[in-house]
Amino acid sequence: MQTQISRAMFQVYEPIVLTGYDAPELQTICNQLGLNEHRMSYYAVRAAALGPVSAEVVSAAFYHHTLEMVSPAIPLAWSIASPKRIIDARFEAVDQALRRLLPGQIESAEIAEALELVREAVIGCSIAGRALFAAHAALPWPSEPHLALWHGLNLLREHRGGGHISALMEAGLSPSQAAPMLIAMTGEARAIRFSWRWPDDVWNPAVADLQERGWLDDAGALTEKGLAARSHIEDETDGLALGPWLQLGKERTHRLWTLLRDLVQMILDQNGLGQLRTPIGLSWPPHWPG
Known about the structure:
By secondary structure, this protein is mainly alpha-helical. The chain has 15 helices and no strands.
């Protein structure tokens, strides 16, 4: 199946990207900059590539996060630190995190090879309809290979994310409904929503709407109908993310998967991954799109 390739690649590059965003080094630098309230270390860091935009733009680009969630952080963050300084801080934190988690790989031939493959893969990513990906793609690539690799993998993640938004909209899921569907899909505890700052007056009506559609049961778990809908969304997302892997071709895509799988395993061995919303997959699918 075509979707299996995109899914397999996502499951090995997503954890590496998240080691940067979830790194304690990033939180430390954000605290030093004064970006320590209202989830600025998430909203400002991820949105900085867009420039000093409004909360409305950030909410639209992120999709899952309502204007009410974003507006306490944006545009206040831009008055504390410029977008350029925040981007620089992110790369500083990623550098520190990767040197801690992959100390023997920073200057390795494997990192250099993976970077070359990722650069080629990104050529197959269209900016059309993907504003956040386009903003990150306009940033200069870092000169150090390990940072450039992380940047390239982050581009692949944002490219996939833009396609995911399209799939959610096609399925008729509003931003507030998308989060309960994701949490139900992954089997996470309902309490995790509080880390996303979902207030009851947003969360409860969204869950009620999904229950009325027959997608969630009374306990907030996916029904058979809801599971089918969520699986369709993920398949659509995978299909819209195929571009970079068709660009690379089967052999080079598999080689990149192998290199990234090994890096993920090294990070896992260091206990360097927090709780992920997406299960890590370390098996290569048997089929290549024809």
